[in-house]
Amino acid sequence: MRHEIWQQLQKEAKELVNVEPLLASHVYSSVLNHECLGSALSFIVANKLADAVVSAFTIRELFDQAFVDCDKMLTHVAHDIKAVKDRDPAADSYLTVILNLKGFHAIQAHRLAHCLWRQNRKELARFVQSRTSEVFGVDIHPACKVGHGIMFDHATGIVIGETAIIEDNVSILQSVTLGGTGNEQGDRHPKIRAGVLIGAGAKVLGNIEVGEGARIGAGSVVLNPVEPHTTVVGIPAKVVGKPSCPCPAESMNQNFLEDQPQSVNDSYTSAML
């Protein structure tokens, strides 16, 4: 997949240069001057993460080595690009995703930090985490395990703890926390299974499992496990029904009332009044 996406990125980049010459230098530096997806990605993200002490060149070298050491990393990157393009109506091209969307950039920075963490280069991994938090407003512990096809929509304020796991094809919106419930040690963060959609501002706390294809409503506080293919909403979150499709992360439908019988809608509305 990554080769097809790279070809499309080059095509879109050439088209953008033709219609918006003011961005030509940016597009050439970021995409057209590179030979592959990994080279372009490392250039883009490294230039955002660099500071006065650690240069973009140094971070690019870390990325390039990570692509070798973590052999699935670039395949995961390609799945992430496609996931955002397919799910976000504001992302009208692959080029927009790789150039402009900080949620995508934050995930790729985390992939680098996680690779470093696995190599026991923990202080360097923490540096990447810190810069990712400062630059993108997304704080993911380097030990957190993240699958592919991940979308962070808007992304600002997302916080994910050390022992959290996010499986494939998950969509998470802004201000979501996957956190602990206190200062407990050990395995203490949520496990998010494939296909889950987590709405804006939701807080999922503790070593609990959110089952495959589940959906968490915006602003909910989830303290208990969530069964697969169920929708939970509220503070504390309670089951209110089932998503209308097997993979809510792909449909991105956050209006859970559309999936419920009118009697359920009326009951929920009455409870909120």
From TrEMBL:
Catalytic activity: L-serine + acetyl-CoA = O-acetyl-L-serine + CoA
EC number: 2.3.1.30
CDD domains: LbH_SAT (cd03354)
Keyword hit for Methyltransferase: no
Location of the Serine acetyltransferase N-terminal domain: 5-109
SUPFAM superfamilies attached to this UniProt entry: Trimeric LpxA-like enzymes
Gene3D superfamilies membership: Hexapeptide repeat proteins (2.160.10.10), serine acetyltransferase, domain 1 (1.10.3130.10)
Involved pathway(s): Amino-acid biosynthesis; L-cysteine biosynthesis; L-cysteine from L-serine: step 1/2
NCBIfam families on file: cysE (TIGR01172), EPS_EpsC (NF041874)
Similarity comment text for this entry: Belongs to the transferase hexapeptide repeat family.
Protein name stated in the entry: Serine acetyltransferase
Organism of this sequence: Pseudoalteromonas aurantia 208
Protein encoded by which gene: cysE
